[in-house]
From TrEMBL:
The chain crosses the membrane at residues 21-44, 50-70, 105-126, 138-157, 169-187, 207-231. The lineage of its organism: Bacteria, Bacillati, Bacillota, Bacilli, Bacillales. The keyword Ribonucleoprotein does not apply. It comes from the Bacteria. This is ABC transporter permease protein. Keywords: Membrane, Transmembrane, Transmembrane helix.
Length: 240
């Protein structure tokens, strides 16, 4: 059986065992969509050009979560170091690190697909200003631009998740919050608005948007590099 088939078998088994948690994944993605839409509608001018840096921060943070779906493991990683325990379990079967990495990538892409449908679908439905600015391929370009960024952040998460204990992984994940605040503030101080930029580029150029293609390319490269480096270190990581 090929690595991909074995990884997909593990993914299917994982989904079957954790399917009760998927409800909360949908709820979270939907809640985030409504939160962003309320911010948009709450502006003095309904035009997305007047969004404040809080929206930038929210989008930067929300996209980091799109590569995950809720599971018992994700809820217990701090108290039980569940990701390390998973790696120990796979190693005793034995399941090769290559299969484990393929499984993790499949998990990421599956979560991105599911969460994107819920989040971006609801965002479009409940945000009249977004509907006015973006339609058809313009909205597709907008989605793909942000998914490129989501792949970049999830490349970091994969590296941190597989190579660190639960407590250290928690602090690495927590560091994203102040980092995104700083990024949003710097962009605002420079007179820019990241959310506005993605909307304008998607509206004007659709799927020919260089920002979209650039983010997707960087996202794919980031996942590739993260997988290679993580796999190399995972093979020699002491899990005890």
């Amino acid at each position: 059986m090929s690595n991909l088939k074995q990884a997909w078998w593990i993914t299917q088994k994982d989904i079957k065992n954790e399917k009760r948690y998927f409800f909360w994944t949908f709820i979270f993605a939907g809640y985030m969509a409504f939160t962003i839409s309320i911010m948009i509608m709450g502006q003095s001018n309904a035009d997305v050009r007047f969004l404040n840096p809080i929206t930038d921060f929210m989008m930067l943070m929300i996209m980091t979560f799109l590569g995950f779906y809720f599971s018992r493991r994700s809820f217990k990683y701090l108290s039980e170091d569940s990701y390390t325990q998973m790696l120990i379990y796979f190693r005793t079967l034995p399941i090769s690190p290559q299969i484990v990495m393929t499984y993790r990538l499949l998990q990421t892409f599956l979560a991105l697909a599911i969460n994107s449908i819920v989040f971006f679908g609801l965002l479009y439905v409940v945000s009249p200003s977004i509907q006015e600015q973006l339609a058809g391929m313009g909205y597709v370009a907008f989605i793909l631009t942000w998914l490129g960024y989501a792949m970049i952040t999830n490349a970091i998460y994969i590296y941190a998740e597989f190579l660190n204990r639960g407590k250290k992984y928690f602090w690495i994940s927590s560091a994203f919050v102040p980092l995104m605040i700083v990024i949003a503030l710097i962009i605002n101080l420079c007179g820019g608005n990241l959310f506005n930029l993605t909307v304008e580029m998607s509206h004007q150029m659709g799927i020919l948007s260089p920002l979209m293609w650039g983010m997707l390319l960087i996202g794919v490269i980031s996942l590739y590099i993260s997988s290679i480096v993580t796999l190399r270190k995972l093979q020699t990581r002491d899990l005890v």
